[in-house]
């Protein structure tokens, strides 16, 4: 395991904020102090979560194996459950099927979320049943493994929100109160980043920039990332705007604050700019996007404020808009609920991979 003193981001143990574990006020205060400093400086940190969510080493290995199993399926099986334009992102994303910029993102992904019953009518545009591959194509416990992982990640995210509340001088339930039923619209995404030579032979058009994931800030409340050991691809921009590698560390997640949280705290919590670069190795990454409640109102800031001008939430990321023409949305623009706005954001990054074919 890496020397913690040499890590590019701090390592914080939030297990004292697990509701089922007894911990002293001194322990919680120490964690809160570390967290406040990390959020103000980096907006990201390595997370140790102890037994929260039952995400043991064995559970993490199982979910990585499940991800590998899915991405090894024949294309015709994966393509039967495609993500479609419209903002409800469940199912398979092929290479070239999504991008936060004009670059081709050389990855494929599988997106799923809350186990919404097929018999229950969704209450908003971000709720609904998951899209799973045919049961005969995967191992017997494949879906259960992913569903248990989702439930565990929700519990970890809830512990982080409690810790963040205390870190910013509020009651432990302050931030959780903004995330009630946020688990029903949150997303888990399994990413498979292709090595350079695979991307070159994928049939993508030769022209145009390529990257693993375009530089962006995340739109929601929190993002938790479980990285594959032995392969570094994630990078975060430091306070000088330089890209720094964020290597995987066994037994940890990477947590970064989202734009919504940054806006709620008027920039006190930083929403970090980050990206994924490719190499000669393939890479798996499991990413959980934790959202506030669908009806949450987006805190607005002046257009030229440092926070509002740098976050992706207020940038048009649609394919028809070049990066040079992207405009920060006016704070006077009418914005509905967080859920409505996020559905539109997912539509902005949807791409037709056929448009990249040579």
Automatic annotation (TrEMBL):
The protein, known as: Fe2OG dioxygenase domain-containing protein
UniProt keywords, alphabetically: Iron, Metal-binding, Oxidoreductase
Coiled-coil parts of chain: none
Domain Fe2OG dioxygenase, chain residue ranges per copy: 184-292
Iron found in the keyword field: yes
Superkingdom to which the source organism belongs: Eukaryota
Record Pfam families: 2OG-FeII_Oxy (PF03171), DIOX_N (PF14226)
PANTHER family: 2-OXOGLUTARATE (2OG) AND FE(II)-DEPENDENT OXYGENASE SUPERFAMILY PROTEIN-RELATED (PTHR47990)
Entry similarity comment: Belongs to the iron/ascorbate-dependent oxidoreductase family.
PROSITE patterns named in the record: FE2OG_OXY
A GO term, aspect molecular function: metal ion binding
